[in-house]
Each structure stands twice: as structure tokens, then as C-alpha cells.
């Protein structure tokens, strides 16, 4: 479903600011895998997601989605295959458009050109049913401008829009980090539900270790551009935060120093 083959990325190569962001990253997700990604600040997590979405191109290595090499495919062409939700609840939706218009846009994302984007009765019913899953009463506010919604509501809508067309890969980039704890929990639950409903192949970056343990069937830990730990499905259930911290110390010979990671425990 997704393969990263020896992905390298160096920023500002051969300058004083040179930074190895990704150092020979290999990762494979099978259909339906939900992998949570943790790691200290600057470990390369966002860079890895940017490679998969096509926002960045690797210096070397290949990215394969559904058996197709997409390494050189521009971001807009990959959007048919990839859904993404960012940390900022304002970034996934268009504030001056209504809920229905936003959903119509998301719905038409992987449709061939020439098909009409307008909303007929059947499609409106589909939008309403999809919104009901969120339990936020948005199904009765189809004509509300998205700019009027709360951060949590907008993030729920972003999530729904990103999963609407059942993407081959769903990328979640700290998508609950900017929300207060109760809203973050709501979005976490909606994430679980939407991913399970369509068995979406998902990669989720989080600084919250508990969330990384609670969600998904596999976990990876990154540090300094490398994947330093991979926890398989069979071992994930027995994993604890203490074990993860010990593993980091064992592998790196030092304590995990990321304040944000520790604060999120
Ligand atoms: N466009 C860029 N130009 C130069 N350096 C960059 C750029 N993007 C990222 N980096 C550097 O690459 C490294 C990896 O960054 P990345 O954002 O992927 O880390 P991260 O694991 O997502 O960190 P965080 O958890 O703090 O968001 C960092 O040292 C960062 O400063």
C-alpha cells in the first residue's frame, strides 16, 4: 500500500546550516495498517509526511503508493491518493464557503474532470449521513459558513473531508495538538471511527505518547532522521510509556529530551 525505500533528505546541503532531515528511511504499510509516529523535535516526522504527500521531493529513494512509484508526482496529482489533516484546524477547510460547499469540493477531489460538482438531493443526503458520524449536529448546519465553526468542529470537518474519498493513505500531522483536551479527545475518537469504518491505511504523527499507544496497530519512533524503533502489531498492546522511554534510552544511550513529548505523557 505504501512503501518508503531508502528516503534521504538533506536541507541546505554543503552549507553551515546543513541538516540531514531523513536518513535512509525504509517503511512499509500494508493495507489497513494504522501506524503512529513519535519522536523528539526535529526528528524528521513532518518531513517524512511531506515526502509522502509530495510537498517535498526526496534527494534519493523512492515512494510507492498502491504499487505505483509516485516519487516525482507533484502534490496536486497525489491528492487523489492521499488525504491529509494538519495541526492547524484552520488549514483544512475554506472559511468563506459553507459546510456543504466544502464537502462538495472534497467529494469532487478524485472525480474525473467533466463531472458536475453541484449538490443534488442524493448527494446532500450522503453529506448529511457522513456528518452524523461526527455527532456535532453539523448535518443540520449545511449552509453555515465554515469560518463560524469552532476549532474542534473545523478539525472534525477537515478529518471527514480528508477521508471522504477513501484515500489510499491518510496522513495525520499532530492533528489534535492545537485543541483543548476535551476537543482533542473528541477528534481522537472520530479518527478511530473514520479509520475503522473504511479500514484506511493511516500514518499519524503525534507528540502525545498515550495517544500513540491508544491508536493504531503499529508504532514507530524517529530520532535524528532515522526510524530507531518499530513496534509490531503483536507487541503494541503490551507497550507502555515507561517502556518506550526505556527503549529510547537503550537505543540512544541518553534520555528522551523533547519537552513536548515529555509534557504530553
Ligand atoms: N524547509 C526546511 N529548511 C531547512 N531545514 C528544515 C526544513 N524543514 C525542516 N528542516 C529541518 O529538518 C529537521 C526535521 O524537521 P521536521 O519538521 O521534519 O521534524 P519533526 O520531527 O516534524 O519535528 P517537530 O516535532 O518539532 O515538529 C529539523 O532539524 C528541521 O529544522
From TrEMBL:
Q: Which PROSITE patterns does its entry note?
A: ABC_TRANSPORTER_1, ABC_TRANSPORTER_2
List, for all copies, the residue spans of the domain called ABC transporter. 2-249
**A GO CC annotation given for this chain:** plasma membrane
- Bilayer disposition of the protein: Peripheral membrane protein
Q: Name one GO molecular function term.
A: ATP binding
* Compartments in which it is found: Cell membrane
User: Do you know which SUPFAM superfamilies this protein is assigned to?
Assistant: P-loop containing nucleoside triphosphate hydrolases
Q: Where are the transmembrane segments?
A: none
Matching SMART domains: AAA
Superkingdom of this protein's organism: Bacteria
UniProt xrefs under Pfam families: ABC_tran (PF00005)
Per its UniProt record, what InterPro entries does this chain match? AAA+_ATPase, ABC_transporter-like_ATP-bd, ABC_transporter-like_CS, ABC_transporter_ATP-bind, P-loop_NTPase
Identify the keywords attached in UniProt to this record, alphabetized. Answer: ATP-binding, Cell membrane, Membrane, Nucleotide-binding, Transport
Q: PANTHER family from the entry?
A: NITRATE ABC TRANSPORTER ATP-BINDING PROTEIN, TAURINE IMPORT ATP-BINDING PROTEIN-RELATED
In its UniProt entry, what is this protein called? Answer: Putative ABC transport system ATP-binding protein
